[in-house]
Fold:
Amino acid sequence: MQKIDYIVTDPHSPDAKCHGSLADLVLDALVIPRCGLIPPFLVLRSVLRTGGGDAGTSPGCTWEPFDLSAEDYSTIVEQLERMTPEDLRLRHRDPQFQGEIQSDHGAPDTENYADWLDSLVHRGLLPGGPFRQARRR
Structure:
């Protein structure tokens, strides 16, 4: 699997230029919520097409947008599911998951990251929400 260049942003420290695997990018971009569930393929592909963002007063991550293949997604999932809590603690950005990293087999059929996060709230796997933007009438 290829390595990718990306930038980790944090409002309290200088930006960090990184060069890592796609699994590293997914962790550093904080795409996996604290419950440890990996977004399904369509959701993750949609997120990676955006190029991320600096997230203002929250930690962020930026990269050159790209299209994720199903093969690369499978590799990412395999790498992430093998990571131990110790592996995660040794990273420069510890995502502090509340459980093991694993695939979300109960995910709805969506490409939208906010809709997927809302599904985690409705399934009792994540507090908070709603994550959808308010719609004007």
Notes: The chain has one domain: 3-106. The helical segments are 22-28, 41-48, 70-82, 85-89, 113-122. The chain has a mean pLDDT of 88.
